[in-house]
Structure formats: structure tokens, C-alpha cells
């Protein structure tokens, strides 16, 4: 019940001494009301507009709240009624002798639905720097956003001032902070702009730090977001989330993890795509030149099942701390199922994976394309029971994915695609060093895994990027 506040500047006009904030329809406030006439205390009631505004400025969440002010700064705060503490602050050892020793308070009116949004707009709305768009009285909000080109083809949530302000409460970062230069137009993108697009996408405020990390990763030179957008290939950003944030915001790493149905998975990936579209100018048939594209261009985001994995997490493999919350961005081109219902040894299952991985982009094209292998729990159990590590599986796959030059030169197998004839005597790996990633996700029923084929790899295309999630 006792909270000692760090000194904070108070709203103008409040006196030194004791200040109490109360409201009607609060049983504890009614109980202590007679005492307020006995105390040297300045009373603020949330039941009038001025008092409500002052309570908002003080950050009151529970009433009654008793504050002690010295030199215009708050130095102590008591929440609810606790007889001993009120006596100590008031200096009256007999205060409230007929009252119970302790009673909890009630919620502040500043937190009531509707009122909290109104107060946010009233007192914080001026801090938003984005251009306001006024709609005509008979204009439909959803259709207006379609007409203005702010959507990805699906309806979006209108980004009102109240919604954007509420979204910004999901991060401690300043709304004016520059997050990144967003390609293709290399436009400065603030936390506020990301928040607006997170609202459009349908995110909750607690998702915003993950979206911010994804935007930072997508706008790095290594990830090459501009090239990924402008390529005629199918690929788009794939967001893999690791660490405690997964559970904190309710992400899906299990059944249907790569599919629909989970709000966090769906809207985080969508928010990233909307930032690229609405801030960076990346629109289909303009800078976005994908020949066919893939559904991941709407959203492609999931969490790794770290707890059930036979391996260390993807983020740890990418160099992050095991305790950190991270996003890893991979330039992916869609999901290729892997079916193996009979393998019960890691060698056999690895052989299946290698055979399927060989087809990424084209069986005769080595090194040029990366891949992400998503191991399912039932397949993962095979490796766990055999004691295989991630490194062991990668070693086995690398050995099985050495391609004979004679098989991959142009014309081999009656296929014109392939390498020049000069490679006939060579042996080449299917993937560059670091170009095959492994993570663990999915439901615990089904002997299926998945391959997410990548775009052009390395300096000629994109390198996977991992960024830590900041609050």
C-alpha cells in the first residue's frame, strides 16, 4: 500500500504539503472523507473536469491516493487506505481510530474506458507530429483508407489519435526517435510512424517493441530491404521471434505456427509490411516488382518453440544471448512441406531433409539461395533421442548437399538451367556458409517439417539479421 515515488514535477498550481485524490462511487474514498476535514490536506476530486485533468497529470491509477509534496515535487505516495501510514504522513496518531486498519482503493476515473482515451488526446495529442487527415462526415473510414492507398488489400484499423497514443504506451522510446531509414525511398521513420502502422495492422501496444525491432532489422544494409522489395523473385521478410517476449505477448510457436489465427503473429508481420508500404513507398507494381509474389507479403511472422526444441534457439545460433528477446529477419519465398513419416533415425531423416533442400530455387543452382528449415516437434524428437545437436545436423546436411558439377551444369539431365560447363569437374555446396538456418516450431502431431526457401544470398542479395527487442 505504500509507494515512495521518485521526485517528480507536479502539475502547476499544486501546493506543498499533503494532497489527496478521490472520486465518488469509491467506497474507500467515502470511508476516509470525514477524515479529510481533520487533516491539513488539499483535496482533488476526479468528479469535476479540473480535478480529473490534475489526476491525469499526476498519473493516478488508484483512489484514494495520498501524496506528500516538498518544494513543488512529489516525494511520497500512498495508495488506498492504510491507517498507520496515513497517521505517519499527517502527524496525527489518532487519525482514523474508528476505521479498519487497511482497505484497498478503487480504480481512477482516468483509466475508465472512453475517459482515458479522451484525456490522452486532450493532453498528449499535441505531441503527435504526423499529418492529420480529416474525413468528410459521410465518408466511410475503412473505404477512405482503401481509397488513399494505405492498405495491403485487406481492411485496416483507423489510426485515430487515441489509438496511436495508446499504441505508443507499448514502448518507453520517444515518439520522435528515428527508428530507421525505410526503403525504397529511404524515408526517416519515427517510433510514431511505426505506431501508426501498427494500429493499421491491428497490433496491441505490447507488440510495438517487436515491430520496432523488425523495422530496424529490415532496414539494415545486410538485410537489403530495397533489393528484396524490388526483385522479381517471390520473397518477402519472414520474422522469427525468440526469447521471453514470445510468451509475454501470446505468440504462437505450436499448432499452425506458420498459418493464421494468432493476433500477434499476424499483425506484427503485417505492421512491418505496412511500414515498408506507407513510409518507405514500397508498393506492388511500382518498386515492388515481384513476378508472382507470395502470401507472406501480407504477413509472415511466428515464434520459435524454444522449450520443446532439441537444439539451441535460432537467436542463440545467430549470436544473441539466450535471455534476450529478439527478432530474426529472413528473406523467404514461401513454405515447402517436408513429409517423412517413416524415418526413426537421424541419419534417415537428415537424408530426407537434404533431398528436399536440394530443390530450393532449383536443384542445379548451388550457393546462390539460402533456406530456413523449420523442424517440427515430432521430427525434432528423432534428433533429441539420438542426442544430435544443431551443429551435428548442419554437418550432416552439409555433407549430403555437396553437388557434383557433372549433375548441375547446363544441359545435364536435359535441363538447360545450370552452371557453365567449366564446373563439370567441381563439387559445390548447395548453400553458402551460414546460408542454411534451422529453427523449431509446430504442433506435436504430424511427421512433417517445412523449408522456407530464401532469396539470393549474401552480398548479392540478403543476409539474415537478428536484432534485440528493446522496451
Give a topology summary.
Layout: E1 2-3, E2 8-9, E3 17-22, H1 27-36, E4 41-45, H2 49-58, E5 62-63, E6 65-70, E7 73-79, E8 81-82, H3 83-90, E9 102-103, E10 106-107, H4 115-124, H5 141-147, H6 161-168, E11 178-182, E12 187-190, H7 191-201, H8 208-218, H9 225-230, E13 236-242, H10 245-248, H11 263-278, E14 301-303, H12 314-317, E15 326-339, H13 346-357, E16 369-375, H14 377-386, H15 390-400, E17 402-404, H16 405-408, E18 427-429, E19 436-440, E20 448-456, E21 465-468
Parallel strand pairs: 3-4, 13-14, 16-19
Antiparallel strand pairs: 1-7, 2-7, 3-6, 5-10, 6-7, 8-9, 11-12, 13-15, 15-20, 15-21, 16-20, 17-18
Helix pairs in contact: 4-6, 6-7, 7-8, 7-11, 8-11, 13-15
Structure description:
- The protein has 471 residues and is of the alpha+beta class.
- The chain has 2 domains: 2-112, 3-Layer(aba) Sandwich (Glutaredoxin); 161-468, no CATH class.
- Helices cover 30% and strands 21% of the residues.
- The strands form 6 sheets. Strands 13, 14, 15, 16, 19, 20 and 21 form a 7-stranded mixed β-sheet that branches. Strands 1, 2, 3, 4, 6 and 7 form a 6-stranded mixed β-sheet that branches. It has a two-stranded antiparallel sheet with strand order 5-10.
- Helix 7 (191-201) packs across helix 11, helix 8 (208-218) packs across helix 11 and helix 13 crosses helix 15 (390-400).
- The longest helix is centred in the middle third of the chain and has 16 residues, at 263-278.
- The protein is elongated, with a radius of gyration of 29 Å.
- The model is unreliable at 1-9 (pLDDT under 50).
